[in-house]
Amino acid sequence: MSATKDVVALNDWYVVAFTGEIAKGHSEITRLLGQDIVIHRDWSGSFHCVTLPEKGEDERSLDTCEKYGFLWATLGTPAREIVKIPEFEGKERKFVHRGRIGVPTSGQRVIENFFDLSHFSFVHTGTLGGYDSAEVPRYSVEFREEETELWATGCSFYQPKASAAAGVSTTVYYDYRIPSPFISIIYKDSLVQRGSKDLIGLFIQPHDEERCTVHSFALVFDERNSQTHILHFYHEIFAQDRSILIHQLPKKLPISPRREIPTISDASSIAYRRWLDRSGLEFGVDRTAA
Amino acid sequence: MGHTGKKSEQMIRLYDYVLSADCYKIRLMLALLGREFEPVKIDIHPGRENQSAEFLSVNPRGRIPVLDDGGLVVSDPTAILTYLALRHDGKRTWLPDDAALSGQIMMWLAFSGAELDRISQIRTNAITSAGGDPPGAMADAYNSLAILEDHLAEAELTGRLWLVGDHPTIADIAVFPPVILAPDGEVSLDGFPAIWRWLDRVKRLPGFIVMPGIMPNLAGAV
Hints:
By secondary structure, chain A is an alpha+beta fold. Chain A contains five helices and 16 strands.
């Protein structure tokens, strides 16, 4: 299988591994944007990424970068730097590597599900929502950083168990940041450190247009619960999402306005689809109108 | 904790991972028996804590679930289901005291531990993005489901609704999780109508609990 020809997709940075997942002296084969690549970690701990060439092709080195504990790579020439997340510099939050989760659908489907509020009550019943409190209060959608970032702000939801640290039902406020088509970060009220936000981020590695791996992290205020307790809470939530995502068709995200009948609560999803349309991205999107 | 109850009265502890189909067999059985338990959460993915020296001292096979019932440690889902039925089901309905029924129940427990475990492995590989299913794994999965489908369809013809005998047993509890979770690994249940009907019957058992990937029967709920 060979890489996509979509330059918008190629000219971006993607997480291809969590650095701690590959031991020194070991290699791993994975796929990015249709291109098989080999990640090698030498005995000094440095990472090297090359394409796994098909017959007649030459091996090619990829630019890589270690950031936020993850290994990033690009097949093209990104115009932008890797997304800035200043909260990684502070030490007050607990960092949780949530492990990679494979999902047989486009990365865009995963991102859209991540910032959708309407599904909480029905997919995450008893934790992030409940049947009796399914209404999505109004929120705002805006573009920042010269339209390179999409934000949904002032989101709120009544949640029976908003996080591993939550003891009682509460209304939780969220901001969603989508700084690239394949990255989303939640800034969510901390229930431990009032006035501060917990972060949950997804870095998606699109293998091909209908298959991806979700690398993710959390930066949370939580001294009480063990790393494993927090991890299992997240895995429970994500596996619920995954079991819904694998049934969504088409697997590529439809972005034509003629393919949707949105409601007010879908404002962020509609903004995401229009934003993807304007970006010129072809990879993982379905532009057909019917 | 300062608790000094007799060992036999201590809370059952289960070495557990929320996404493990094998652990769910035990959580489900305990729920159906009305027994509470205290989970000991193990970081299987990505931490591989099951390979740590500490965990290997609990189960040298490096696998969950492991049950600790007042100091008696039992590992392996088949062994734990059998133990729970003998130890905590006074009426002996889940594992009847009957040679013929027990023989058939053990056959389905073996089926769950072998053929259906390979379906669970497909699912685990898909969820953890590990890839690399052995050649023919998908075809084997559908052959295994066809065995179950045929058995259930034939049983229905004579009015039997469960895998063995005329009421649910640990055979149903061992087989249910890997089957209902198969779609997580892109193993489709679309062509198996008798399996669908049986899955729904299990979901209606008093005390039934779900896990991620399993929707409850919502009749009357919403």
